[in-house]
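Tokens as discussed.
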């Protein structure tokens, strides 16, 4: 009787054979395995969780709802296409696991491949990759004995799955069945740098290198819809200058982006050799000014054409700039002083401002490039078109307020003239307006004019007090991308 009472009061691990305990433990999920190992000394000695078990636990935790699990980075368009979100809303609230440093980090710490490849994507909580059992197996030959082979076998079985339809044809499984099985190899930018895995590479059909150098690595980051190069490299500068931007951004005059207020700009993260922190390129006062350009360098690790230049530099210095001496705004302020930072920012600001100003002014004058063609098609209005052409401001380098006022008057004249031309020959008018330039210019001239006036107001504020640029730069968290949110 005493023996039965003692057996009844004995701990569970003494009542159940150890072989059965091992079988039960192998059916736990990674979070339950770690929790059980911390319950008492017996299970801690039995399980002895290692790095692999903690990695599996972290990969399961990143799929929880409070870390963004279930939030898709893709959306379906009205045409049925699946596209990636180019706004920071779905990105900012999520965290991803780095299996090297074992931390949950925001998206700005990873490159695109680590987050967007199908095998590296974070699965939804209900998908198979988010609800796997632990791979823990006791072994007399070490904790990792045979584990890699078992993982590869499990992944191969998933990839070889087929769906057999009624016709007998075998289809591959959908993406959600294969998503997330390669997350074990996901590493953040800093861990990849320490492992010397970040090396320059040669893109297809290019002679220049991407990826920076071993000392100053450059990693492609997110692609966001931004208004212009000015908004891309000086985010929220208008708040510091107390110059509120226009509520309606000007439309884009480029193929595939007609009548769109934004363009997809690619962001880059650079590791500063001074403070050893990853920051966006706007913190280094460099970057391509055209939306289609990429940040590249030559075989000697010298940037090409993507930094501010002045008249005191030689032709060689204007064409290339070594990455070796690159420093972020905070490092320049600490090493060279606030005045040196202000001077460097002012030079970069003028270059970006001039590029965007010329782009806006080309939009204001865009219709005059086609007026001769209109006069040849609508012969009855040739004299009136020639009258407008005599006063055009097409050859002026930079516009002033008086010139823009004249363009506004001429735009109103052409709008009235175009109404009569369209009424006289609607078929020909529809053919001419197929590319959308004429309606875009007439309907959104005021938006481009408002953007132009705002740019000049920002320039006047900066020229009056250049120190505002340093205030803006030192108050920015360049390691985060939230300034474009």
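Sequence:
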């Amino acid at each position: 009787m005493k023996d039965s009472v003692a057996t009844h009061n004995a701990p569970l691990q003494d009542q159940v054979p150890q072989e059965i305990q091992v079988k039960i433990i192998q059916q736990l999920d990674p979070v339950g395995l770690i929790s059980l190992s911390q319950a008492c000394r017996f299970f801690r000695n039995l399980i002895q969780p290692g790095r692999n078990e903690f990695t599996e636990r972290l990969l399961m935790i990143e799929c929880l709802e409070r870390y963004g699990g279930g939030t898709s980075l893709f959306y379906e368009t009205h045409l049925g296409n699946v596209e990636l979100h180019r706004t920071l809303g779905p990105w900012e609230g999520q965290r991803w696991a780095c299996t090297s440093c074992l931390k949950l980090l925001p998206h700005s710490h990873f490159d695109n491949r680590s987050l967007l490849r199908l095998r590296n994507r974070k699965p939804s909580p209900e998908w198979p990759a988010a609800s796997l059992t632990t791979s823990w197996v006791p072994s007399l030959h070490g904790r990792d004995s045979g584990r890699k082979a078992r993982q590869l076998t499990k992944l191969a079985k998933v990839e070889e799955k087929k769906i057999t339809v009624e016709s007998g044809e075998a289809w591959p499984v959908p993406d959600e069945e294969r998503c997330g099985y390669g997350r074990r190899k996901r590493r953040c930018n800093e861990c990849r740098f320490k492992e010397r895995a970040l090396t320059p590479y040669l893109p297809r059909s290019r002679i220049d290198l991407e990826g920076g150098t071993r000392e100053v690595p450059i990693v492609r980051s997110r692609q966001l819809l931004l208004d212009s190069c000015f908004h891309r490299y000086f985010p929220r500068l208008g708040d510091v200058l107390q110059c509120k931007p226009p509520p309606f951004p000007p439309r884009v005059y480029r193929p595939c982006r007609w009548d769109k207020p934004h363009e997809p700009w690619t962001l880059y993260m650079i590791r500063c050799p001074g403070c050893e922190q990853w920051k966006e390129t706007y913190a280094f006062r460099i970057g391509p000014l055209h939306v289609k350009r990429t940040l590249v360098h030559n075989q000697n690790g010298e940037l090409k054409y993507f930094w501010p230049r002045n008249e005191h530099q030689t032709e060689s210095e204007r064409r290339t700039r070594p990455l070796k001496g690159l420093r972020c705004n905070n490092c320049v302020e600490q090493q060279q002083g606030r005045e040196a930072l202000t001077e460097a920012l002012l030079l970069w600001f003028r270059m970006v401002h001039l590029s965007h100003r010329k782009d806006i002014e080309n939009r204001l004058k865009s219709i005059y490039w086609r007026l001769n063609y209109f006069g040849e098609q609508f012969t009855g209005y040739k004299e009136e078109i020639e009258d407008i052409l005599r006063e055009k401001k097409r050859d002026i380098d930079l516009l002033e307020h008086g010139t823009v006022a004249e363009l506004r008057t001429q735009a109103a004249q052409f709008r009235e003239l175009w109404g009569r031309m369209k009424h006289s020959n609607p078929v020909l008018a529809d053919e001419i307006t197929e590319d959308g330039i004429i309606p875009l210019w007439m309907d959104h001239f005021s938006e481009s004019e408002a953007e132009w006036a705002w740019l000049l107001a920002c320039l006047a504020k900066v020229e009056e007090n250049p120190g505002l640029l340093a205030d803006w730069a030192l108050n920015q968290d360049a390691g985060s991308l939230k300034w474009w949110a």
